[in-house]
Amino acid sequence: MSRLALDVWSDYLCPWCNVAATRLHRIEEEFGADVELRWRSYLLRPEPEPGRDLAKFRRYTELWQRAAEEEPAAEFHTWASDEGPPSHSVPAHLVAKAAATFGPAEFERMHRALLHAYFVENRDISRAPTLAALWREVDLPEAELVRVTDPELLKLVGEEHNQAIEMGVGGVPAIRMEGNDVAITGAQPIEIYRRWISRALDGATA
Question: What is the pTM of this model?
Answer without folding.
Answer: 0.95
